[in-house]
Automatic annotation (TrEMBL):
One Pfam family matching this protein: HTH_AsnC-type
Protein name, per record: Lrp/AsnC family transcriptional regulator
Taxon lineage: Bacteria, Pseudomonadati, Pseudomonadota, Gammaproteobacteria, Alteromonadales
Domain HTH asnC-type: 4-65
PROSITE patterns from the UniProt entry: HTH_ASNC_2
InterPro entries: AsnC-type_HTH_dom (IPR000485), Dimeric_a/b-barrel (IPR011008), Tscrpt_reg_AsnC-like (IPR019888), Tscrpt_reg_AsnC/Lrp_C (IPR019887), WH-like_DNA-bd_sf (IPR036388), WH_DNA-bd_sf (IPR036390)
Length: 152
């Protein structure tokens, strides 16, 4: 793990709060100049510590009233086919390959629960699926601690 100092960590935290913040504004927040923030940010990108910048869309506002978590277990010899079908379905927000009984866990965006069967239908010849509807999100996507914890 690359060691980050407090300034690097604070730059990343500031960008996580608002990726559109100017370098000058971030610099004011953490006590260095905008150009110094820019140089540190370039180094963090070159070192692949910062991989990308993004937008978080409020799914409800754009019409997706539900989210579902889907555990997916491909049938024998169908792993690559199932992976391709998941990748081709734009309603899957993310998908992780996991250990255990299932091979994948993924999150779907749904307008209505009635869509679930239609969206998952393409998988059913190639995999078993187990679905849970998300009632609420206790923790939204966030960064892990970037500086060493006290006991490390």
């Amino acid at each position: 793990m690359k060691k980050l100092d407090h300034l690097d960590a604070n730059i990343i935290y500031a960008l996580a709060r608002n990726a559109r913040a100017s370098l000058a504004n971030i610099g004011k927040q953490i006590g260095i100049s905008g150009p110094a923030v820019g140089e540190r940010l370039r180094r963090l990108e070159d070192a692949q510590v910062v991989d990308s910048f993004g937008v978080i869309v409020n799914l409800k506002v754009v019409g997706y009233s539900l989210e579902a978590l889907v555990r997916i277990k491909p049938r024998s010899g169908q792993l690559r086919k199932v992976e391709s079908l998941i990748a081709d379905q734009p309603r899957f927000l993310w998908c992780d390959r996991i250990t255990g009984e299932d091979c994948f866990v993924a999150k779907l965006a749904l307008v209505d629960v009635s869509e679930l069967d239609d969206i998952l239908f393409t998988l059913h010849d190639f995999a078993e699926t187990h679905t849970s509807i998300v009632k609420s999100s206790v923790i939204r996507p966030r960064l892990p601690p970037l500086l060493p914890l006290n006991n490390e």
